[in-house]
Amino acid sequence: MNIPGNLKYTKDHEWIRVEGETGYVGITDFAQGELGDIVFVEIETVGETLGKGEVFGTIEAVKTVSDMFMPVSGEILEMNGEIEATPDVVNKDPYGKGWMIKVRIQDMSELDELLTPEAYKSLLGA
Questions:
Q1: Average pLDDT value for residue range 75-96
Q2: CATH 2.40.50.100 fits 14-107, yes or no
């Protein structure tokens, strides 16, 4: 299982990569594996400011539909256009080309409440 060391994680299996005051958010390798083949991603919150833990979109797989939650509070600046056209990129590259949204982080201290890679591994029992 792939758990990159440069990311922070949520208990709901989202990750965030921070670049300055911006964060890229996606779902973890574990989450995409549990969901199975991803067929559709719906994100209608671009331009909105959401709080930590709020739903920013849904992801549909052959087996189920699942909500995706904000790891931190912030304004959603952009959705990854590539996942709209080819949602299975999330299965192939969840930490790279399969990112979901770009966020302007409101409160950097919220990052401290997220899981480290080691804590996320423990959560999964890995």
A1: 96
A2: yes
Within 10 angstroms of residue 107's Cβ, the number of other Cβ atoms is: 12
First to last CA, the chain: 8
> 74-87: string of b/e by CB count within 10 Å (b at 16+)?
bebebbbeebeeeb
Instruction: Give residue limits of the domains in the chain.
Output: 14-107
Identify the DSSP state of 82: H
Average pLDDT taken over every residue of the chain: 96
Nearest partner of 107 among 38, 37, 21, 33, judged by Cα: 21
pLDDT greater than 90 at residue 126: no
Gyration radius of the chain over CA positions: 13
- Rounded Cα gap, residues 3 and 106, in angstroms: 25
